[in-house]
Write a structure and sequence with these properties.
Blueprint (H helix, E strand, L loop, with lengths): L4 H11 L4 E7 L2 E6 H18 L6 E5 L4 H12 L3 E5 L5 H10 L4 E4 L2 H10 L8 E4 L13 E3 H14 L3 H8 L5 E6 L9 E5 H14 L7 E3 L7 H14 L2 E4 L6 H8 L3 E4 L1 H17 L2 H22 L6 H22 L6 E4 L6 H9 L4 E5 L9 E2 L12 E2 L3 E5 L4 E6 L5 E2 L3 H7 L6 E9 L5 E6 L4 E2 L9 E2 L1 H9 L4 E7 L6 E7 L1 H10 L7 H5 L2 H19 L9 E6 L19 H7 L1 H9 L3 E9 L5 E12 L11
Parallel strand pairs: 1-11, 3-4, 3-5, 5-6, 6-7, 10-11, 12-13, 13-14, 25-26
Antiparallel strand pairs: 1-2, 8-9, 9-19, 14-15, 15-16, 17-18, 18-20, 20-21, 22-23, 24-25, 26-28, 27-28
Helix pairs in contact: 1-2, 2-3, 2-6, 4-5, 8-9, 11-17, 12-13, 12-14
């Protein structure tokens, strides 16, 4: 598809001017912006940015939640041949310094007072940041800083510019080329400084269109945009595919109203990383704990049936007449109300990506009639590499290579990808670019896996993370930490987990409890607690988590290849892993190496056979202050099981 994002916008505005393009919930009411009005907004904003001095090839930082005028800001920049750079709105100011300095950013459009404060703080390190515009004026009336102005002022200046030079905007659009850089996304940086991934209009639109054709997306679909726009997954689903397909993107009022908004909108196309699906399942389990005995009995019976026949039904496989009747009854009484509670009543296609999802979690959603599938891709591949066809969704694969994609697995087990959606380069980092792009156009993913007999790609783990146990009874056994962590996180009581074991005799783990789920469990048992630290170290909670770990070990024992990865010892951390403390990326991926180094004393205690270990940790609060938390953590021996031999 030889076009650009601004061209797609103008095409929709011409063909369906009054159709809804974006909706935003404000003060509890959904406000609709049509394609013609959006095009007019983009025109005014582009002219305003040009008046302010933004030119072709320069970068414009965009920071905030999903908001129509921030989407318009990205389109306005692209209309001038400039490059939008979305950054994570929950990042602290210090995290903005590198991308702003790296991209030599002089212009920023942000959502509100919180982001303005960060930008003004960043100016100390990035004096070139000359102009900052804000969308939401609340709390900013008395701010007086050079170059700071409301977005309305930019639009007013843009309309005046357009009136004086009515041919300017159209001339700029005419200069655009699909090979122009469309956006730059900074990677999550699990191993160091983030890298700016440069994508052109051609790469992003090619993959967005291929994904749309795969799932037969149309202008009639609805999407809820609630994940960070800086994450390429959200950007592809609610920006690139939005402009390719012309469907409606709905922006929630706030992070706190997402669940309510999800039910009100009833999206037909849904995308979320595994942690969101984990959180939704946790909320369901908490509610069922609070339900009466009859409801719990009915739920348990219905879910037992769903686990047995639901996935087969979703995959189009034959199901007996009696089971079909039972499932229909379960759908009437349990599954349909549950889908409605989750906001998935109208979902036709739901995807999860970003990291591996636990097989039990995956099966749960498919068993209740939600067409949840997995996809495989990354920032560097413009997301869409492999997708699971309907009726071929499996928990242990990520689908088949879609149109325009080639895949090969080299001798080391690493997966290489070639497609029209590959990054142009890492910005100002030719060494890193050369490391991942081969001379003949293949991208090194860094993931280890293989293609199975059915043509589906199976990911084991990050290539650098897959290891082997060393010494003892399990010497040489395969160790895939993410696989173990995902099995732990299926339990509603476990929010995060970090497994260790490479080049060691056995596997040990850190666990973060889910404060809401465990808190609810504790309250029912009359266990008082004053916060996460106190609750996490209660003997009853340790035993609860020990039971969960035991169940995971029992599952692992049934797999000869992974039986050696059973967790022998674990501890419950005294604090939640936090992106602000550098322990998680902004997309909530565990930075395993950083955690191992930061908590080296705890790792050593696990492997030295200690029964407890004192730890003091520095933490960063939301307002930027730092403090320390200290605790003596008990180390728990987990139940392990003999390997279940496979039948010959």
């Amino acid at each position: 598809m030889q076009t650009t994002f601004p061209h797609l916008l103008l095409e929709h505005a011409a063909k369906r001017p009054n159709a809804a393009a974006l909706r935003e919930k404000e003060f509890g009411i959904w406000q609709t912006l049509g394609w013609r009005d959006l095009a007019a907004l983009v025109r005014a904003m582009a002219c305003g940015l040009a008046e302010a001095g933004l030119t072709r090839g320069q970068h414009l930082v965009v920071v905030g939640e999903n908001r129509p005028r921030l989407y318009a800001a990205m389109l306005a920049a692209q209309s001038l041949g400039a490059i939008p750079v979305p950054l994570y709105q929950d990042a602290v100011a210090a995290e903005f310094v590198f991308p702003i300095a790296n991209a030599e950013v002089a212009f920023a459009i942000v959502e509100d007072q919180e982001q303005v404060d960060k930008m003004l703080e960043v100016r100390e390190s990035c004096p070139g940041l000359a102009r900052i515009w804000f969308d939401d004026p609340r709390g900013l009336r008395h701010y007086e800083a050079a170059g700071l102005a409301p977005l309305d002022a930019l639009l007013e200046a843009g309309r005046a510019h357009d009136a004086q030079q009515p041919g300017f905007f159209d001339a700029e659009i005419a200069r655009l080329n699909p090979s122009d850089v469309a956006a730059m996304f900074f990677t999550s940086g699990t191993t160091g400084n983030a890298k700016g991934v440069v994508h052109t209009h051609a790469t992003l639109i090619d993959r967005a269109a291929a994904g749309a054709r795969f799932d037969k997306l149309t202008a009639e679909d609805e999407v809820l945009a609630y994940l960070p726009p800086a994450w390429i997954g959200q950007n592809i689903f609610s920006y690139a595919q939005w402009l390719v397909c012309g469907y409606v993107v709905n922006c929630p009022e706030s992070a706190a109203t997402v669940m309510i908004d999800l039910k009100e909108i009833g999206p037909t196309y849904y995308f979320a990383p595994p942690r969101v699906f984990e959180g939704l399942l946790t909320s369901v389990m908490i509610r069922m704990e609070d339900a009466g005995r009859l409801k719990r009995w009915m739920f348990d019976r219905a879910m037992a049936l769903a686990r047995r026949v639901g996935p087969a039904r979703m995959d189009g496989k034959p199901v007996g007449a009696l089971d079909r009747f039972r499932y229909a009854l379960g759908n009437l009484l349990v599954y349909a109300p549950l889908r409605n509670t989750l906001g998935f009543s109208r979902v036709r296609v739901a995807y999860t990506a970003g990291e591996a999802i636990g097989p039990d979690l995956f099966s749960f959603y498919r068993s209740i009639g939600i067409n949840l599938k997995q996809l495989y891709g990354s920032t560097e591949t413009a997301v869409f590499v492999c997708l699971q066809p309907d009726h071929e969704a499996r928990a242990d694969t990520v689908g088949i290579p879609i149109e325009g994609v080639e895949i090969k697995v080299i001798e080391s087990g690493e997966i290489l990808v070639r497609s029209a959606g590959l990054l142009k380069e890492y910005y100002k980092n030719p060494e890193a670019t050369a490391e991942v792009l081969t001379a003949d156009g293949w991208y090194r993913t860094g993931d280890a896996g293989f293609v199975d007999a059915a043509g589906h790609l199976k990911i084991i783990d990050r290539a650098k993370d897959v290891g082997r146990l060393s010494g003892g009874a399990n010497d040489g056994a395969l160790f895939a930490p993410k696989y173990v962590e995902n099995k732990l996180k299926f339990f509603p009581y476990i929010k995060e987990a970090v497994a260790f074991g490479d080049r060691r005799e056995r596997v040990c783990a850190f666990v973060n409890i889910d404060l809401e789920a465990v808190g609810n469990w504790a309250e029912k048992r009359g266990l008082p607690y004053g916060g996460y630290a106190e609750l996490s170290q209660k003997a009853e909670v340790r035993e609860l988590i020990r039971e969960c770990v035991g169940k995971v070990n029992a599952d692992l024992a049934a797999d000869e290849k992974l039986a050696g990865s059973q967790i022998s010892r674990f501890l419950i951390l005294h604090k939640e892993l936090d992106a602000d403390d550098g322990e998680l990326t902004r997309t909530r991926k565990v930075r395993r190496g950083f955690i191992a180094e930061r908590y080296r004393v705890l790792v050593d205690a696990l492997y030295d056979g200690k029964a407890e270990q004192f730890i003091e940790t520095e933490v960063r609060f939301e307002d930027g202050r730092t403090g320390k938390v200290a605790a003596t953590l008990k180390i728990i021996d987990a139940p392990t099981f003999a390997v279940a031999k496979q039948a010959a």
